[in-house]
Amino acid sequence: MQDEEYMRQLSYGNDSALDTLVFRYHKPLYGYVYRLVQDEKLAEDIVQDTFMKIYQQGQKGFVPDSFKPWMYKIASNCCKDYWRKASTKREYFTDEIVEDQGKVYNIIERQLERQWMIDALDQLSPDYRMVLYLRFYQELTYAEIALALEIPLNTVKTWISRGLKQLEGIVIEDERKGAGVNE
């Protein structure tokens, strides 16, 4: 059964439909949220809040056109709400390096699961981090990311491009430090 059908089942009062959605998406959703907030308990709370909102919308009879981007939209908004409430402000690396994007794509493919890559991603602004996590960790298309974050498709493309350029600069700098090259 498709995810949207499970949402329909929720509107009919079949609460067990939510169990299937939780089973399917808890782990990837938790991974996405955890990478954004860097706190296990907070990530779990946000994931729980996300599923609660999904349940509530299902009870009201709402069935999204595409479940997965809609779910990530809810989770992303919950993260944004947390950041707003917590007033967490950090300085972010904003130096852009104009280089071939193909190079950074190759770096991401080779190093996706390495901790230093995650640390490098954490240095990006929340907007760039969200689009890169959704694209490379959750494998959403640009259109699905646009739906999930409620931003125009061209903004998704721009943020991914800029985020990759910044990420490349961070990774190159980390590689220099790791190789003992001093400037």
From TrEMBL:
List each copy of the RNA polymerase sigma factor 70 region 4 type domain by range: 115-167
Q: Which SUPFAM superfamilies match?
A: Sigma2 domain of RNA polymerase sigma factors (SSF88946), Sigma3 and sigma4 domains of RNA polymerase sigma factors (SSF88659)
Give the record's keywords alphabetically: DNA-binding, Sigma factor, Transcription, Transcription regulation
Keyword Lipid metabolism attributed: no
Q: Which CDD domains match?
A: Sigma70_r4
Q: Which stretches make up the RNA polymerase sigma-70 region domain?
A: 22-87
Q: Which Gene3D superfamilies match?
A: 1.10.1740.10, Winged helix-like DNA-binding domain superfamily/Winged helix DNA-binding domain
Carries keyword Transcription regulation?
A: yes
Recorded hits in Pfam families, A to Z, give: Sigma70_r2, Sigma70_r4_2
| Entry's transmembrane regions | none
Q: Which domain of life is it from?
A: Bacteria
Give the family this protein belongs to, as stated in its UniProt record: Belongs to the sigma-70 factor family. ECF subfamily.
Mind telling me what this protein is named? RNA polymerase sigma factor
| Native source species | Sporosarcina siberiensis
